[in-house]
Amino acid sequence: MTTTFAFIGFGEAGQYLSRGLQGEGAVVSGAYDILFDAPDGGGPKGAAVRTALEERGIPAVASPADIAAGADIVISAVTAKQVAAAGDATGPHMKPGQIFLDINSASPGAKREASVSVNAAGADYVEAAVMSNVPPHGHRVPMFLAGTAADKAAALMTPLGMDVEVVGTEIGQASSIKMIRSVMVKGLEALLVESLTAAHRAGVEDKVIESLGESFPGLDWRGKAGYHLGRVALHAARRADEMEEVSETLRDIGVPPTMAEATAKQLRMCADMGLREMFIDDLPEEITPFVAAVSAKHSS
After folding, report:
1. Which DSSP category does 91 fall into?
2. 166, β-bridge pairs
3. Which of 19, 78, 152, 264 has the highest local Cβ count within 10 Å?
4. What whole-number distance in Å separates Cα of residue 16 and Cα of residue 91?
5. Alpha helices in 81-172 (DSSP H)
6. Is 100 helix (H, G, I), strand (E, B) or coil?
7. How many helices (H) and strands (E) does the chain have?
C-alpha cells in the first residue's frame, strides 16, 4: 500500500522530508504554506517555496482546508507560534482514519491545544519530537512519537525508512523530552556564543579552546563549537522561538526557566544581528569569522 502525505508548511523541514519520502515511493499530494496568503505571494521566500514544490512535482494547495483531501498523514511543519493555528485550520476538514503528524518544536501545552480540532473531527493527532537537525538526515531524522495513534503512525512511517520511536500514548510526552533536552543543547550554543565572543575580543580565543579541551578531554571543542555556531548563524530565530516554548514548558511543570530564558535572549540577539543573511551563502568552517562578526555587532 502506498502512503500519501501532505504538508502544512513547506520550509526546510518540509522540503527535506518530502524529497526523502518521494524517494521511498510515497506520494506527496500537496502542500500549503502561509506565505501563499501574503499580498505579494510571500515575496522571494514564497517564490522559493513554489519553486521547491514545482521541482518535486507537488501541487501548491490554496488553503489548509483543502490539504487533507486524500492524505493518509498530514505533516504540520510550521513555526512554533503557528502550531495551534495549523491544527485549528486543518483539523475540522480531516476524517476518521487520517493522521495529523505535528513535528513542530513546541510546548506540550501548544501540542495539546493543536490536537483539539483534529480529535473533534475523529482524525488522529500524533505529536512528533524531531531529535536532530533535519539536514543531513532528511526523512530519516530521529523522531519520538506520542499519542493514541502513535503506533499506527509508526507502522506507516517505518517501512519508508523513517527513524521513529513511540514514547507514549499521551500528547505532551514526546515534546516534553524535546523541550527539556533543549535546555542543555541550545543552552550550550548560547554559552559558546558568549564565551568565545568574549575570548575573541580579549585576544585569548585559542587558549580558551585549548583549556576546554583539557577540562573535557575527548571532545573536539573547536570542531564542536564551529558546528554549533554555524547552526546559530543560520537558525538563531527559530532556536529562540523554540527556547520560548521551552520556557513555557518548564513553567507549566513548576520549574523556573532561568537558563531557558537566558538562552532565548542570547539566540534572539544573534537573530537580530542579521547573521543568517551574512553567512547563508558562505558559512565558515572556522570559529573566528562568526565570533568576529558578533563582536563587531556588539561594538556598533
Report:
1. G
2. 145
3. 78
4. 24
5. 83-90, 108-120, 134-137, 150-157
6. strand
7. 13, 7
Work out the pLDDT band at 41, boundaries 50, 70, 90. Answer: confident
pLDDT digits (tens, 9 = 90+) for 226-277: 999 999 999 999 999 999 999 999 999 999 999 999 999 999 999 999 999 9
pLDDT given for residue 169 in this prediction: 98
CB-CB contact of 145 with 128 (8 Å): yes
Domains (range + CATH), the chain: 4-171 (3.40.50.720), 175-299 (1.10.1040.10)
User: DSSP code of 126?
Assistant: E
Strand 143-146 to 164-168 pairing: parallel
Residue range 185-212: mean pLDDT, rounded: 96
DSSP 60: B
DSSP for 272-292 reads HTTHHHHHTTS--SSSHHHHH
Q: Is the pTM of the predicted complex or chain greater than 0.90? A: yes
